[in-house]
Design a protein that fits this description.
This protein has 52 helices and 34 strands. By secondary structure, it is an alpha+beta fold. The chain starts with 9 loop residues before the first helix and ends in a 39-residue tail after the last helix.
Length: 1460
């Protein structure tokens, strides 16, 4: 900690300095100064009212009947608080660190802990932002006399301090030393004696009343004395105000001089009323708060300043008290009343409760704010009185810190000073929660009050909780008065106060922190600084005072920058030095709007160093470019241009020139520089602004771009840029705008327009050669960019007024344009078209005054429609279309125009003309003949037929034209044509079909129309499609795409089966015929066709030559076999056993026939493939035919019945392998199910027979222990949630619900809040989950009685009882009456709700295929008549098995591989 140097007067250290302090030796009256400070404090609070806390406030609800202090103390911590704030999340501080604290000394034997606690986050260092906010000084006079008194009169060590207009210090030997606050700090009084101190003990608390006439002293052994501070007389000695044997922890005067409050080490609070009757002084004591069940360790009455004595709150004489569990705010007047209780929540038990009042301005009203904290969280509560006279407490913001607090002090209405447990001061702006400064005060050697909290003087008879809090208590060591805070050390007294704004700035200057000093001063200037002292008056006056101080700092800063510049070394080091310093000077000069200071004194000073000068000029650039800096001196402008020119930053030079007033510079020199460096914008700007010359820039630019354009050469990129700038410049001039930004002065606008027009229409240039063509400037611009130049002229014509001169100018320009473009052949059709489009737009205006010869339009039309020139066809058509759309149509004869357009194949022109005449049918021909827009014809026809606004005749003509071209439309896009027909003329489909003579087109049309897979957006149901039409499409499909017939039939609906079968038979599509027969229901017929096809394929493969290696025939056999198997599988579910055999056995015989023909000695080349297919047939039929029947049929075959089983050995072994695998699967599944069921039942039994453990041994309703009730018939009900009740108490609260005729208990605490909403729901759950008596059997000894009310349980939280010798499933326990009820129990009860819930939880945990479903299917699979091994080949909608469920998985080992 840094001590301030001793001043000439100690009083100057104590007084609050203002901005008008000039004489350092001038004395101030402390009381007047403090009073003035209070007024300034309130003014400043109201001034900053717009920057206060959030508008959202959480009002604390009022209690109808306020609780008494005793009832609050009697509340148990386990119970819910009777009164809490509405938003408890803001007090959620359960995550606080818990640390044990020892009593190791910081400064004395009674000091607190200094362990550095690790917290969540740390605030950033704020010195550079706010400077030094606090000024702290040692009161040497008082400190020396304290030490002297201890040595000379055995006064002892200091123990307590109180400050008003005097300073009182209590000692450990019972003396009270009274010092003055004047510059001498003289000892005024020494109250008491060491002999009395030996009797009373150390002074543990002090308090001075408002007018500084009385002093109250509290002693460690419990006595209280009152002294007259004027005479030094002892007025009262009070020994019976509180219970003996307890120390006085706090003694506080209220605003009423006859009323004081004391707090003893027993945790009690007493009200002391001082009276004087007939010259006799008495004291009456009243207990406000008993410490028998809750100990108060901090009290704080509300003190109002003299100017607030009429505040409506003061009449209540409010007192805040902090116990170890809650905060209370009570009113002492007019009668004792509790206004608020506020629970802490969970806290570190060693943290110190703190309270502090202060009046603050919120929403333009001044009201008291109570800050309370414990640990690392500070809460702010605003207290205000409403119109009815009631007091409301609203929660404001809270402050979460990273350190534990041991003291909280308001220094003014915006600033608080916090002291943490490691003796660091934190100055914080409470509204923004910003930390302004941190100060280490360990050298104060702060006095701690631990011995008084432990009551060592009376034998230490205090609770452990209070003693633990007292480890860090320093309530009596810190006192605040009038914006000053006094800290009492073991040998010294320190005072701390806010520095004035000048002191804070000067303090930074002393530490050579000039940049930080300027930033802090600017925050004072803008009114954004925190904890401001010494700035008064209106805003302009305050800004002027701060600005003057900043100017002084800036001069000092500039001198230091030049002085500290490195004289030797690299130029980069010097540049970096000035780049770090010079911008600060420039920025603050411009922020203060002191250009005179910057461009005169500062610039001259910094120009002494060339590097600094360059940095200054570069700093000006962003301000100039943003137009924030105007009025630069000529010398600075010249230096700017030269500087950037020297650094080759010509783009920067150009940007600067166009933002500066360069009239005072050498214009010719700047123009020359701009032209040489191609700074065309700057050059134009200099000509315009510097000389009011607007023509010369155009002449210069024309001289560059005209020669290459006239020679037909391509322009360079640089020349293109110049040409574009020229066009923009001409446009700006003709529109009255300055180039490149701003506006031309209004008095010059007409002159500039006339000059530019006269220049453009000059017949020849100034230095024309004999070969130059006429009107060179117009010609050049037309060649450069015809369209943009004509746009410029069009915009100019819009601005012209209809006076005679303007009309002449327009006509003259038009005549020149026609003369230049029409009489020359070096312009493209597009350029000529642009001109005539421009003319057509001008001629189409209602107020047009231009005249153009119509013959010229005819010549242009001939030029654009010339059939001899086929180049640029689309360009010429587009140009003509733009000309017509711009109004040029009135210049032509329409029939001749159409003829020329058709001849030139300008179909868009034809469409434009036909649409004007409403000949929409002819437009269809235009679309069909235009190869680029053919496909757009469908959208056009659709729009004409669907969009309203067209007559029926027009729509009819369009439709007839479409019908005439229907074949063309279908060939163009069949889908679009079909969609068009289906949308608009679905009833004429037959007519369309007749018109389509080409069979291929008809097929495409019908497929697009009928096949929904083609994707046309038409409702198929609205189509009037006859079966014959669908059958016609099917026949065409059989001809052109036979492979897609089956797929198409699956999506088609409207066709007749018999006729369709005839069509497919006609084209010999056997698979399609079989599909249709199956759909008809003729399963044998369909199977017969497929079997014949398979047999023919097998016969072909049997007679296939050995040397043929093609596998196509084998692939056909495989495909046909798979299709036949699928046919049999699809239909076997609906057939009886005999019908199934009629399908499967012929198929098996057909597959085995080739193997009979080929002997074992000479097997066929495809025998292995055929055996595989035969095995596939066997596996598939095994799902529908019993294995014995299959074997019997095979053995009945004459070939195999004679002992030739070797040929089918593989087939039989494969069947046996399948049987072994399925048998293993069945046994494994049965074993798993048995184990799973056994495990589930064991867990169910354990869960329903589990005992219950109650949370407490007393009833949760009457709060009496269940053993204390005398009613012998009363039962004890315990719920699974842990709550315990007497049955009589539950009955009184109506905690029963009727379910299926039986009454069941409900837990009162758990279901009271949502009782109504859940009872019906829970009842239905019980009904759904109930188990019948036959499913679960319990021993008779465990069943409740039928009539016992305790056996009726809550459907949500199942009730249980605590028996004395046993635990019952229904958990009902009584004394002797209960035992009688047991004998009446039934033998087979239903499951209670708890058992039902446990069983349902098990079912949810192991959700899957039902065990019953698995066992049922396994038992069905073992039946002889429909034995279906699950070999994986089952399919079809009619067969649904749990084993085919995609979620069913059994991870078993595969069957053993048998060796042949």
């Amino acid at each position: 900690m840094e001590n301030e140097p001793e001043q000439d007067s100690v009083e100057q250290n104590l007084c609050v300095k203002t901005a008008t302090e000039e004489e350092p030796n001038k004395s101030f009256n402390l009381e007047a100064s403090l009073s003035k400070f209070s007024y300034i404090d309130l003014d400043k609070e109201l001034e900053f009212r717009n920057d206060l806390i959030d508008d959202k406030e959480f009002d604390i609800p009022q209690v109808d009947t306020p609780p008494t202090l005793e009832s609050i103390l009697n509340e148990t911590d386990d119970e819910d608080e009777s009164f809490v704030l509405e938003d408890p999340t803001l007090l959620n501080i359960d995550t606080i660190d818990s640390h044990s604290y020892d009593t190791s000394s910081v400064a004395s034997s009674d000091s607190g802990d200094r362990t550095n606690l690790k917290r969540k986050k740390k605030l950033p260092d704020s010195f550079s932002l706010h400077g030094s906010v606090m000024r702290h000084s040692l009161l040497k006079g008082i400190s020396a006399q304290i030490v002297s008194a201890a040595d000379k009169v055995d006064a002892g060590l200091p123990t307590a301090i109180a400050v008003s207009s005097l300073i009182a210090v209590g000692t450990s030997h019972g003396l009270a030393l009274i010092f003055g606050k004047d510059q001498n700090q003289a000892l005024r009084l020494c109250l008491g004696s060491t002999s009395v101190g030996g009797q009373y003990g150390a002074i543990s608390a002090l308090s001075i009343n408002n007018d500084c006439s009385r002093l109250l002293c509290g002693f460690a052994k419990g006595q209280i004395t009152m002294w007259d501070l004027a005479s030094g007389k002892l007025l009262r000695s009070i020994t019976d105000a509180h219970p003996p044997g307890t120390a006085i922890l706090h003694i506080k005067f209220t605003d009423d001089p006859t009323l004081a409050i004391c707090n003893d080490s027993g945790g009690s609070v007493f009200e002391l009323t001082f009276k004087r009757v007939m010259g006799v002084r008495t004291c009456e004591s009243r207990c406000l708060f008993s410490g028998s069940k809750g100990e108060v360790c901090c009290i704080e009455p509300l003190h109002s300043k003299p100017e607030l004595k009429d505040h409506p709150i003061t009449q209540f004489s409010l007192l805040a008290m902090a116990s170890l569990t809650k905060i209370l705010v009570i009113g002492l007047k007019p009668s004792l009343k509790v206004w608020m209780t506020f629970p802490y929540g969970r806290m570190d038990p060693s943290s110190v409760p703190l309270l502090a009042w202060h009046f603050v301005a919120v929403h333009n009203y001044v009201n008291p704010m109570l800050a309370f904290c414990r640990g690392d969280v500070v809460h702010f509560l605003l207290v205000k009185r409403d119109e009815s006279g009631a007091i409301h407490v609203t929660k404001q913001k809270y402050l979460h810190l990273y350190y534990d607090l041991i003291n909280f002090t308001w220094i003014n209405s915006r600033t608080v000073v916090l002291l943490d447990s490691v003796e660091k001061l934190h100055v914080i702006d409470w509204q923004t929660q910003e930390e302004l400064e941190t100060v280490e005060i360990s050298e104060v050697q702060l006095v701690y009050n631990s011995s008084h909290f432990k009551s060592l003087a009376t034998g230490g008879n205090v609770s452990q909780a209070l003693a633990l809090v007292g480890e860090k208590a320093c309530y009596q060591s810190i006192s605040s008065c009038g914006g000053q805070i006094f800290y009492l050390g073991t040998k010294s007294v320190y005072v701390m106060m806010l520095r004035s704004w000048r002191e804070r700035v000067d303090h930074l200057l002393k530490q050579d922190c000039l940049t930080e000093a300027l930033a802090l001063a600017w925050s004072f200037h803008e009114g954004k600084a925190k904890a401001v002292v010494g700035l008064s008056g209106d805003v302009s006056k305050r800004k002027a005072v701060v600005a003057d101080r900043m100017v002084e700092i800036l001069f000092h800063y500039a001198d230091r920058a030049l002085k500290k510049c490195p004289e030797q070394g690299k130029i980069q080091v010097m540049e970096q030095h000035f780049q770090d310093t010079v911008p600060v000077i420039v920025d603050y000069c411009l922020l203060l709007q002191r250009k005179d200071l910057l461009f005169s004194q500062m610039y001259a000073k910094l120009s002494e160093n060339s590097v600094a000068k360059g940095v200054v000029l570069e700093c000006l650039e962003p301000y100039i470019l943003s137009d924030k800096l105007v009025g630069i001196t000529p010398q600075v402008m010249k230096d700017l241009i030269v500087h950037f020119q020297d650094k080759k930053l010509m783009e920067n030079v150009e940007a600067l020139i166009v933002h500066m007033d360069i009239t005072s510079l050498d214009i010719q020199q700047i123009v020359l520089m701009c032209w040489e460096n191609r700074l065309y914008d700057a050059m134009i700007y200099v000509y315009n602004r510097g000389m009011n010359e607007f023509i010369s820039p155009m002449e210069k630019l024309f001289k560059v771009i005209a020669p290459p354009l006239n020679a037909g050469k391509t322009l360079t990129d640089e020349q293109v840029v110049m040409g574009n700038k020229l066009l923009v410049y001409i446009s700006c001039c003709l529109a009255g705008r300055a180039y490149p930004l701003g506006d031309i002065p209004e008095d010059l606008v007409p002159l500039v327009k006339n000059q530019v027009f006269e220049f453009l229409i000059r017949l020849h240039s100034a230095e024309a050669s004999p070969e130059e063509e006429i009107y060179p400037y117009v010609r050049t611009l037309l060649h450069f960019d015809t369209r943009e130049f004509l746009n410029v002229l069009a915009l100019t014509f819009e601005d012209f007024k209809n006076d005679k001169q303007a009309v002449e100018y327009q006509q003259r320009i038009v005549d020149i344009l026609l003369k230049v473009m029409v009489e020359n052949s070096d312009f493209t059709p597009s350029q000529v078209g642009c001109l005539f489009t421009f003319l057509a737009r001008q001629l189409a205006k209602p107020d047009n005054t231009l005249f153009v010869n119509r013959t010229l339009f005819d010549q242009v039309l001939e030029f654009l429609c010339s059939p001899d020139d086929d180049s640029r066809h689309s360009e010429r058509q587009q140009v003509l279309l733009e000309l017509l759309q711009a109004g040029g149509i009135v210049q032509f004869e329409e029939s001749g125009l159409i003829r020329m357009a058709e001849k030139a194949e300008f179909y868009q022109i034809c469409e434009f003309m036909y649409e004007r005449e409403h000949q929409y049918d002819k437009i269809i021909d235009c679309y069909l003949r235009d190869p680029l827009r053919q496909e757009e014809v469908f959208n056009y026809i659709h729009n004409i037929l669907s969009i309203p606004g067209h007559s029926a005749e027009e729509k009819q003509s369009v439709w007839h034209k479409a019908m005439d071209h229907i074949e063309e439309l279908v060939s163009l896009k069949p889908c679009k044509a079909a969609e068009l027909v289906a949308t608009h003329f679905s009833e004429q489909i037959e007519t369309v079909i007749k018109k389509l003579q080409n069979q291929v087109l008809l097929f495409k049309f019908l497929r697009s129309l009928l096949d929904p897979r083609e994707g046309i957006h038409v409702n198929q149901e609205s189509l009037q499609v006859s079966p014959s039409m669908t059958e016609q499409f099917i026949e065409l499909l059989c001809q052109f795409s036979p492979n897609q017939v089956i797929e198409t039939l699956q999506v088609l609906e409207c066709y007749r089966l018999e006729e369709t079968i005839q069509i497919t038979q006609k084209y010999q599509l056997h698979e399609v015929t079989a599909y249709l027969l199956e759909k008809k229901g003729d399963i044998p017929g369909a199977f017969s066709i497929m079997l014949k096809r398979l047999q023919s394929k097998l016969q072909e493969i049997t007679h296939q030559a050995e040397n043929t290696k093609e596998d196509s025939l084998l692939n056909e056999v495989e495909d046909t076999t798979v299709e036949t198997i699928a046919l049999c599988q699809r239909n076997s579910h609906n057939l009886n056993q005999q019908q199934r055999e009629a399908l499967w056995f012929p198929l098996l015989e057909a597959m085995m026939a080739p193997q009979k023909l080929s002997g074992a000695a000479a097997p066929h080349m495809h025998s292995e493939a055929l055996k595989s297919l035969t095995m596939q047939v066997l596996n598939s039929m095994a799902a529908f035919i019993a294995l014995p029947s299959i074997l019997q049929r095979i053995l009945q075959d004459p070939v195999y019945g004679k002992g030739k089983l070797g040929e089918i050995q593989g087939l039989i072994l494969g069947m046996l392998d399948t049987f072994n695998y399925e048998q293993t699967l069945l046994e494994t599944t049965t074993s798993l199910l048995n184990q799973d069921l056994h495990w589930s039942l064991c867990n169910l039994r354990a869960s329903v027979s589990r005992g219950l453990n109650p949370k407490q041994d007393y009833c949760s309703i009457c709060l009496q222990q269940y053993k204390r009730r005398q009613e012998m018939a009363d039962e004890i009900i315990v719920f699974s949630c842990g709550h315990l009740y007497h049955s009589f108490c539950l009955q009184s609260k109506e905690c029963t619900v009727e379910i299926e005729g039986q009454a069941r208990w409900t837990c009162y605490k758990c279901s009271s809040s949502n009782k109504v909403g859940k009872l019906s729901e829970n009842s239905s759950e019980i009904k759904r989950g109930r188990i019948t008596p036959s499913q679960v059997k319990l021993s008779p000894s465990c069943h409740p009685s039928k009539g016992d009310p305790a056996s009726k349980k809550d459907p949500v939280r199942n009730a249980a009882a605590v028996p004395k010798a046993r635990t019952e499933p229904c958990h009902s326990s009584t004394d002797s009456t209960s035992r009688e009820h047991v004998g009446q129990a039934t033998s087979e009860p239903v499951l209670d709700p708890q058992q039902t819930q446990a069983f349902e939880q098990l079912c949810r945990l192991y959700r899957g295929s039902s065990r019953l479903a698995l066992l049922t299917e396994l038992s069905q699979n073992r039946s002889s008549d429909s034995y279906r091994p699950f070999s994986g080949s089952q399919s079809g909608p009619a067969f649904s098995s749990v084993f085919q469920n995609e979620n069913f998985q059994l991870r078993l080992a595969p069957p053993p591989v048998t060796e042949d």
